[in-house]
């Protein structure tokens, strides 16, 4: 499959929704899985959102005997047609035009507001009289890992690559550029996202957004889904190969690892800096055990892990990081844990952690580098933050204390960061 953003034929796709109108297509049988794609593209990703929807239509042609429903809530940029948000039912189509059925239209709103997110999920819940057997959720937009909405992992996101072409923008969750109302959220807080999702249970949550493969994010969502598919680092603006994975997403015999493998294979076949990808699948069932095992390791290592501005006894610079500007927000969780175990001769605790890790992170794959600059040699699929007592981190560290992972993993009292 050719990388879609290298094909000039896609340059016109961004305007094809001009012809997208409500049509009288029969609703699908209410069997199988219903998948919602929550797509915040009221930003510089509008072009790629339309392209991905077109791919989803192509993927619906490959269902065979699979039954189910794919819905997309999309909030497009100001130049979109229409620019206001709407809900679509994706139908099979082989053309380069988006022809799917618009089933609900919304007023202009900030889709990164948790209240809006909640309303859309309720609307989807009420669309059919007969419930589907199961549900899946795709969160599609920019993403910022566990960080508070006002903090960005880096400031020149679009300038890291050649910005003379829109094809080289990065996709990183929830940036909505509509800020006409000062009370609007610009990004969705992960904890608020989890609160919205708490009443529901999904087979999977897939993050088509950068940096969301963080243990803090995963742990916050562990009760609302069985599997989480995400990346600890950036995701190229082309995102997931939807044409290939739609049958997997709707299949009753859902295999999260198959979805992730297809994403990995897609990028592994690319050349140069486009051969850039990291992906993992987390089975949420044993995450509480993982936190407990991690806590045991930290408690057995008190005094040996000193992360401070003046005296770094534990050399964090040697750890795998995922932010290419090395802001020290995203370290590889497994790399860190193994280093602690080896430095403190914790063979038994290391063995226990490994057993639980393998049951939790059931798939992890990556290319050798991200954009030819960031080595992924020690990438194991999940990032984590190590609280550091820098003057500039005080507010961030206070925010971090809100996360369940901070409280239940032992980070709250095992790492000396004073």
The number of domains = 2
Q: Do you know the CATH topology of the largest domain?
A: Rossmann fold
Order the strands across the largest sheet as they lie in space: 4-3-2-1-5-7-8-10-12
Query: Which bin fits the share of residues in helices?
Result: 25-40%
Class by helix and strand content? alpha/beta
SSE arrangement, N to C: EHEEEHEEHEHEEHHEHEHHEEEEHHH
Termini Cα gap: 51 Å
Uncertain residue ranges? 1-23, 155-169, 181-185, 309-313
Using only CA atoms, what is the Rg?
21 Å
Task: Please give the count of helices.
Answer: 12
Shape: globular
**What is the CATH class of the largest domain?**
Alpha Beta
Written account of the structure:
With 418 residues, the chain is of the alpha/beta class. It has two domains: 28-284, Rossmann fold (3-Layer(aba) Sandwich), CATH 3.40.50.11970; 287-360 and 373-414, no CATH class. 28% of the residues lie in helices and 17% in strands. It is built from twelve helices and 15 strands. The chain has helices spanning 46-60, 114-125, 190-197, 215-220, 242-250, 256-268, 287-299, 333-343, 347-360, 394-400, 404-408, 411-414; strands spanning 33-40, 68-75, 86-89, 101-105, 134-140, 170-171, 202-208, 225-230, 235-236, 278-283, 331-332, 361-366, 369-370, 374-375, 383-384. A nine-stranded mixed sheet has the order 4-3-2-1-5-7-8-10-12, sandwiched between helices. It has a two-stranded antiparallel sheet with strand order 6-9. Helix 2 (114-125) runs parallel beside helix 3 and helix 5 (242-250) runs antiparallel to helix 6 (256-268). The longest helix has 15 residues, at 46-60.
């Amino acid at each position: 499959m050719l990388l879609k953003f290298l094909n000039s034929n896609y340059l016109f796709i961004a305007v094809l929704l001009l012809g997208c109108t409500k049509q009288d297509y029969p609703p699908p049988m209410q069997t199988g899985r219903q998948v919602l794609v929550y797509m915040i593209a009221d930003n510089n990703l509008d072009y790629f959102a339309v392209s991905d929807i077109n791919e989803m239509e192509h993927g619906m042609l490959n269902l065979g005997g699979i039954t189910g429903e794919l819905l997309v809530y999309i909030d497009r940029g100001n130049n979109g047609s229409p620019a206001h948000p709407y809900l679509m039912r994706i139908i099979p189509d082989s053309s380069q035009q988006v022809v799917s059925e618009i089933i609900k239209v919304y007023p202009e709103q900030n889709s990164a507001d948790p209240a809006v997110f909640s309303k859309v999920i309720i609307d989807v819940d009420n669309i059919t009289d007969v419930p589907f057997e199961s549900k899946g959720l795709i969160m599609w937009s920019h993403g910022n890992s566990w960080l508070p909405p006002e903090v960005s992992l880096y400031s020149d996101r679009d300038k890291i690559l050649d910005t003379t072409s829109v094809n080289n923008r990065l996709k990183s969750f929830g940036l909505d550029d509509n800020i006409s109302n000062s009370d609007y959220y610009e990004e969705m807080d992960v904890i608020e996202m989890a609160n919205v999702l708490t009443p529901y249970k999904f087979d999977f949550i897939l993050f088509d957004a950068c940096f969301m493969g963080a243990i803090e994010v995963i742990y916050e969502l562990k009760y609302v889904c069985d599997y989480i598919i995400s990346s600890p680092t950036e995701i190229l603006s082309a995102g997931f190969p939807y044409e290939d994975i739609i049958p997997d997403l709707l299949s009753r015999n859902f295999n999260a690892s198959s979805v992730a493998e297809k994403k990995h294979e897609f990028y592994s076949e690319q050349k140069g800096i486009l051969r850039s990808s990291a992906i993992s699948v987390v089975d949420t069932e044993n995450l509480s055990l993982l936190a407990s095992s991690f806590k045991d390791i930290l408690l057995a290592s008190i005094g040996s892990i000193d992360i401070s501005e003046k005296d770094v006894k534990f050399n964090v610079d040697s750890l795998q990081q995922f932010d290419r500007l090395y802001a020290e927000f995203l370290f590889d969780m497994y790399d860190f844990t193994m280093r602690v175990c080896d430095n403190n001769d914790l063979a038994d605790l290391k063995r226990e952690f490994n057993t639980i890790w393998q049951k939790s992170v059931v798939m992890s794959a990556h290319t050798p580098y991200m954009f030819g600059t960031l080595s992924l040699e020690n990438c194991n699929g999940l990032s984590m933050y190590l609280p550091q007592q820098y003057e500039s981190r005080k507010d961030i560290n206070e925010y971090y204390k809100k996360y369940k992972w901070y409280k239940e993993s032992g980070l709250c009292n095992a790492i000396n960061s004073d």
